[in-house]
């Protein structure tokens, strides 16, 4: 295993292999649940490469750069995102990891969270797609823009997803008129969703984010039982009525064998853009308490902020337009936690 640590003969400043091994064992990377495996690291002379199997940015290198010995090396980050086990291992899947974003009830900002997580993962270096599974009210064309551009169908009768802000998107909203209503019974809607998933010609993806419809009905069960899911993210507000439904969603996914990767407490508080005062409109720490009670990782507590809303209304998400904004950095931190949790949960399983 130490063969991964390659040293130049002229390099006298780098530690010996046993010292390197010991130093790596002392370090825990952000959002990681264990120390650094030796086969993640390659050292050649003064250049050191950390290869991680999930989406991450340069911040993950900080503990290595601050170490008294390892900090003498020039650290470089590389991604080799792993294709993890899913809920339907017998089904062929030509791309990476499917993450469903779900909520027990509507109105908690699930689609907004889905879009921001997808954009954040893309900015962390992953190839990302989005599937709009809310066939009754597809909102991704509004939030990502290009609503007037219809999906193309190739010679093999496959839909070609749009590329919006660096991510690939397939939605019923790109196939129908904006004012059309999907007046379907449950089985018909479930069949439409499966077709949208399977008949989209996705490129090679590391992550596919699925914006699920709210609730725990036919569509959710169909997706969970018939399509491959790597993990689920639950979105809730701190409000009591939303928390009860969020717990129902957690229970449903666990019953069908889908791991809960994490929970995001959306609209956690309102912060005045003028004076900075915070007001907990929907209550305090409700999502955090559910996450603790259900033993689910808390991926983030996102504020109710007009800048997030206005960007999505205009098809220009804040993350895409201002990736270094403090709110964008907060959402990228949640995406970093999500990617790491997804990987480590699969290793534990």
Key attributes of the depicted protein:
349 residues, ATP hydrolysis activity, Rossmann fold, iron, alpha/beta, disordered N terminus, 8-stranded mixed β-sheet, 18% strand, 3-stranded mixed β-sheet
Kindly describe this structure.
The protein has eleven helices and 15 strands. The radius of gyration is 21 Å and the shape is globular. 44% of the residues are buried. It is an alpha/beta fold and 349 residues long. The protein has helices spanning 17-26, 62-65, 110-123, 140-144, 186-198, 218-226, 240-255, 286-293, 306-313, 318-321, 326-348, and strands at 41-44, 47-52, 74-79, 97-102, 128-132, 152-153, 159-160, 162-164, 167-171, 207-211, 231-236, 260-265, 270-271, 278-279, 298-301. Helix 3 packs across helix 11 (326-348) and helix 5 packs parallel to helix 6. It has an eight-stranded mixed beta sheet with strand order 8-9-5-10-4-11-12-15, with helices on both faces. Strands 1-2-3 form a three-stranded mixed beta sheet, with no helix packed on it. Residues 1-15 have low confidence and may be disordered. The protein folds into two domains: 2-79, no CATH class; 97-348, Rossmann fold. A hairpin with a 5-residue loop joins strand 6 (152-153) and strand 7.
CATH-wise, what's the superfamily of the largest domain? P-loop containing nucleotide triphosphate hydrolases
Which stretches of 5+ consecutive residues score pLDDT under 50? 1-15
Return the CATH class of the largest domain.
Alpha Beta
> H/E series, N to C?
HEEHEEHEHEEEEHEHEHEEEHEHHH
For the record, the count of structural domains works out to 2
Largest sheet data: 8 strands, mixed
The CATH architecture term of the largest domain is 3-Layer(aba) Sandwich
**Beta-sheet strand percentage?**
15-25%
How many E-type strands?
Answer: 15
Question: Any idea of the CATH topology of the largest domain?
Answer: Rossmann fold
Tertiary shape: globular
Structural class: alpha/beta
Give the averaged pLDDT, no decimals: 85
DSSP helix fraction: 25-40%
Spatial ordering of strands, largest sheet = 8-9-5-10-4-11-12-15
Q: Gyration radius, to the nearest Å?
A: 21 Å
Number of helices: 11
């Amino acid at each position: 295993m130490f063969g991964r640590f390659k040293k130049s003969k002229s390099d006298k400043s780098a530690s010996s292999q046993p010292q390197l091994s010991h130093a790596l064992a002392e370090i825990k990377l952000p959002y990681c649940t264990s120390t650094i495996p030796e086969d993640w690291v390659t050292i050649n002379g003064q250049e050191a490469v950390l290869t991680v199997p999930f989406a991450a940015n340069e911040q993950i290198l900080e503990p290595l750069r601050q170490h008294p010995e390892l900090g003498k090396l020039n650290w470089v980050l590389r991604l080799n995102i792993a294709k993890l086990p899913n809920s339907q291992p017998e089904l062929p899947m030509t791309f990476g990891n499917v993450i469903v974003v779900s909520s027990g009830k509507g109105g908690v900002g699930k689609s907004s969270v889905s879009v921001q997580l997808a954009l954040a993962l893309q900015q962390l270096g992953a190839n990302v797609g989005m599937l709009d599974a809310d066939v009754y009210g597809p909102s991704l064309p509004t939030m990502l823009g290009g609503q007037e551009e219809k999906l193309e169908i190739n010679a093999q009768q496959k839909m070609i997803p749009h590329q919006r802000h660096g991510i690939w998107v397939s939605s019923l909203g790109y196939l129908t008129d904006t004012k059309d209503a999907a007046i379907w019974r449950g089985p018909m809607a479930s069949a439409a969703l499966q077709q949208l998933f399977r008949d989209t010609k996705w490129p090679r993806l590391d992550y596919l984010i699925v914006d699920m419809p709210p609730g725990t009905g036919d569509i959710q069960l169909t997706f969970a039982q018939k399509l491959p899911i790597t993990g689920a993210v639950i979105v809730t507000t701190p409000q009591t009525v939303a928390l009860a439904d969020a717990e129902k969603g957690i229970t449903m996914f666990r019953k069908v064998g889908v791991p809960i990767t994490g929970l995001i407490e959306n609209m956690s508080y309102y912060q005045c853009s003028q004076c900075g005062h915070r007001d907990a409109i929907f209550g305090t720490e409700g999502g955090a308490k559910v996450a603790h009670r259900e033993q689910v990782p808390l991926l983030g507590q996102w504020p109710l902020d007009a800048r997030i809303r206005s960007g999505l209304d205009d098809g220009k998400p804040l993350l895409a337009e201002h990736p270094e904004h403090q709110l964008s950095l907060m959402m990228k931190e949640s995406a970093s936690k999500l990617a790491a949790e997804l990987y480590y949960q699969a290793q534990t399983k």
